[in-house]
């Protein structure tokens, strides 16, 4: 049973099942009577000192030989174990899970991450399950360190092991940060501050508060809570209470104010389910809104369930050179009986694929995304869709990074294309009112530059092309929709540039040429700089 050894590459430690002592134990000297000699000479004392020194040297040498013997035995046993693991599965059964070091955190929060380890039947399965558990426990962000050890089970139960988890809880449960961030899709910056308090009640809970103030007069105050386990469910539970203001006066002549609560009901590797309830108010301080925007001003009630399926196998979010991704988002609004409740159905899909060419790190990325939103309920064909639930295209960001649905197009300004209406008399500008259906596609060919200094820093070149369009379907407009007309009014742009990736965002210095646009679209050809964060 002495086959465990240290496994640092897996982030685990394993102790020998039994310590095999190859040297006999060192016997302690028996207690002797001390006899004082009144007439002792110096030679006798010197002989006694020499004998004492020789005894100490013998003890040191014996202990050193014992350590060397044990180390040699452990090494031999470890090599034997690895040979057995390579040859065939090594049967083992978990007898117990022991948690140490948690002064505040509940045992069941930690033990829940070892459920797969309890069911392991081989050493290989146990090591993999322990590695995953180690990673998951660190991801809870409430421990300074996590160490998982495999130790021997009871002597009367051969072939068993105990999994020992030693944790060190965070010494500083209160953390905060402040920074200035750029919101590329709105071409604005914001000052954001947040404060987190971890593990208040010992359930791995994280409580946070945040304040966001945008230079475009947008703002948000939020309070959130995160629980890794809730009433036995295997997925985390999140909730967030927020009060927000979004300023779209420049583009669509309205401000959106919302007071709401968002509940994360399901969150796993591929699936997410969120329920949102909010009281929303659209206002027009400028008194210049177009007719369709004015009809939607006032209070509405949002009660919506949103399901997202996301599968992303790309090797990078900011510069993919291999892999593919798919996202599908389904949303239904109007789950409350209130007459002012927004009733709508919304579906978005996004497909990405990266093809490596095998030279100069060249890769072709292309993507297609689409979405449709439509009201439901009595008289839905004649009713307009809610403006905040419509699609808006354009923005100062790269389509390569905006995974989730149709949004960005190179060369077009934020909310700079699609259905639009003139504002009140005396105002020459127009309101972009959004579309009920939208489709975008892009292709991006990236490649390394021939300068070594640039390649080492990830700076590379790319050429790109993008197309997109949207249409109105509500208020019986779907009767006038036709595919040839939709393709005839599609917007297109091409360009080339240099990409400067960082650990958190992607910066592009591009020359973009708009090949096709429609009347009143806000687009221009020329040099532009874009900043994009991965979605």
Automatic annotation (TrEMBL):
Biased composition annotated in UniProt, kind: Acidic residues:
29-60
According to the entry, every stretch annotated as the Bacterial surface antigen (D15) domain falls at: 199-524
Q: Name one Pfam family in it.
A: Omp85
Where would I find the POTRA domain in this sequence? Answer: 92-169
Q: Where in the cell is it found?
A: Mitochondrion outer membrane; Plastid, Chloroplast outer membrane
Top-level taxon of origin: Eukaryota
Q: Does the keyword Transmembrane helix apply?
A: no
What Gene3D superfamilies does the record point to? membrane protein fhac, membrane protein fhac: a member of the omp85/tpsb transporter family
Q: Cite the entry's keywords alphabetically.
A: Membrane, Plastid, Plastid outer membrane, Transmembrane, Transmembrane beta strand
The record gives the membrane topology as:
Multi-pass membrane protein
Q: Which GO terms describe its cellular component?
A: chloroplast outer membrane; mitochondrial outer membrane
**Where are the residues of the annotated region Disordered?**
1-80
Name the InterPro entries on file: Bac_surfAg_D15 (IPR000184), BamA/TamA_POTRA (IPR010827), D15-like (IPR039910)
The family note in this entry says: Belongs to the SAM50/omp85 family.
Question: This protein is called what?
Answer: POTRA domain-containing protein
Species per Swiss-Prot/TrEMBL record:
Capsella rubella
């Amino acid at each position: 049973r002495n086959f465990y050894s240290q496994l640092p590459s897996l982030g685990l430690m394993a102790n020998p099942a039994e310590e095999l002592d190859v040297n006999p134990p060192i016997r302690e000297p028996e207690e002797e009577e001390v006899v004082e000699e009144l007439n002792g000479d110096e030679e006798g004392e010197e002989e006694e000192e020499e004998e004492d020194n020789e005894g100490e040297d013998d003890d040191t040498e014996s202990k050193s030989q014992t350590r060397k013997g044990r180390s040699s035995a452990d090494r031999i046993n470890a090599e034997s174990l690895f040979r057995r693991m390579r040859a065939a599965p090594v049967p083992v059964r978990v007898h117990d899970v022991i948690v140490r070091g948690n002064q505040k955190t509940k045992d069941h929060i930690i033990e829940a991450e070892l459920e797969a380890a309890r069911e392991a039947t081989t050493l290989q399965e146990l090591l993999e399950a322990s590695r995953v558990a180690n990673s998951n426990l660190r991801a809870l962000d409430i421990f300074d360190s996590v160490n998982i050890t495999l130790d021997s089970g009871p002597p009367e139960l051969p072939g068993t092991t105990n999994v020992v988890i030693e944790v060190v809880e965070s010494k500083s449960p209160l953390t905060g940060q402040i920074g200035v961030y750029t919101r590329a899709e709105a071409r604005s910056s914001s000052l954001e501050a947040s404060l987190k308090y971890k593990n208040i009640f010992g359930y791995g809970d994280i409580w946070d508060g945040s304040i966001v103030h945008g230079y475009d007069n947008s703002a948000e105050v939020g309070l959130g809570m995160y629980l890794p386990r809730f009433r036995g469910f295997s997925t985390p539970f999140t909730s967030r209470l927020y009060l927000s203001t979004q300023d779209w006066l420049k583009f669509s002549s309205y401000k959106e104010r919302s007071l709401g609560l968002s509940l994360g009901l399901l969150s796993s590797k591929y699936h997410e389910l969120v329920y949102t309830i909010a009281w929303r108010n659209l206002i027009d301080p400028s008194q210049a809104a177009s007719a369709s925007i004015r009809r939607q001003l006032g209070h509405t009630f949002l009660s919506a369930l949103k399901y997202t399926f996301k599968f992303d196998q790309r090797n990078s979010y900011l510069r993919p050179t291999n892999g593919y991704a798919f996202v599908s988002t389904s949303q239904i609004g109007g789950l409350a009986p209130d007459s002012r409740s927004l009733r709508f159905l919304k579906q978005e899909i996004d497909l990405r694929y990266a093809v490596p060419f095998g030279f100069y790190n060249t890769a072709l990325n292309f993507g297609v995304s689409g979405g449709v939103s439509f009201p439901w309920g009595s008289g839905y064909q004649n009713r307009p869709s809610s403006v905040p639930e419509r699609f808006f295209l354009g923005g100062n960001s790269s389509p390569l990074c905006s995974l989730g649905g149709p949004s960005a197009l190179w060369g077009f300004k934020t909310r700079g294309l699609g259905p639009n209406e003139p504002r009140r008399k005396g105002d020459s500008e127009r309101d972009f009112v959004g579309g009920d259906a939208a489709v975008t596609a892009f292709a991006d060919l990236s490649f390394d530059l021939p300068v070594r200094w640039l390649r080492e820093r990830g700076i590379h070149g790319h050429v790109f092309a993008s197309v997109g369009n949207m249409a109105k379907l509500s208020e019986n407009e779907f009767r006038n929709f036709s595919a040839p007309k939709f393709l005839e009014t599609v917007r297109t742009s091409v360009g080339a540039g240099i990409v400067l990736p960082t650990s958190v965002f992607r910066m592009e210095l591009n020359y973009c040429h708009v090949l096709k646009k429609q009347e009143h679209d806000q687009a221009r050809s020329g040099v532009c700089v874009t900043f994009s964060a991965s979605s």
